[in-house]
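Thread: Newbie trying to understand structure tokens

Hi all, I'm a second-year student working on a class project, and my supervisor (Dr. K.) asked me to get a predicted structure for one chain before our next meeting. I've only ever worked with sequences, so writing a 3D structure as a token string is new to me. If someone could post the tokens and maybe explain what I'm looking at, I'd be very grateful. Here's the chain:
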Amino acid sequence: MDDLRFRRATADDIPVIVAMFADDGLGHGRETPDDLAPYYEAYERVAADPNQHLTVAERGGRLVGVLQLSVIPGLSRRGTTRSIIEAVRVHSDARGTGLGTELMTWAIEESRRLGCSLVQLTSDNARTDAHRFYEKLDFTGSHVGFKLQL
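---
Reply by user tm_fold:
Sure, no problem. This is what the structure looks like when written as tokens:
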């Protein structure tokens, strides 16, 4: 993986990122790659926030992975700054190559560099393969998460 590099996503990356979101059992029903307008609007909000790091993995000039790293300063845990990793996707033809591990390792190291002392993520209950993957990276299923659709 010598030619793998990580960089901030640009607006030009949005079509490929959304395609990766949609190329997934859960994402297929909730993403709309034929209407990118809401994604571009969201990208502008994310790009304007210094605590948001929408990051792509690129190999040979081609996007092969994406994640969003959010840095959240807090008061609990003695003022711990934490990061939350969301929207992790690896291009379908790059799955099983170790790219996911590289992407997550980058996110953990970047979290350290940004002063975080805790990394969190959530994963849909249906993603049992992803849960095993995160456990192999020493993440612990320590909490129950809840969502309220607004």
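A couple of things are worth pointing out once you decode it. The longest helix spans residues 99-113. Helices lie at 14-22, 27-30, 37-48, 76-79, 99-113, 128-136. Feel free to ask follow-ups in this thread.
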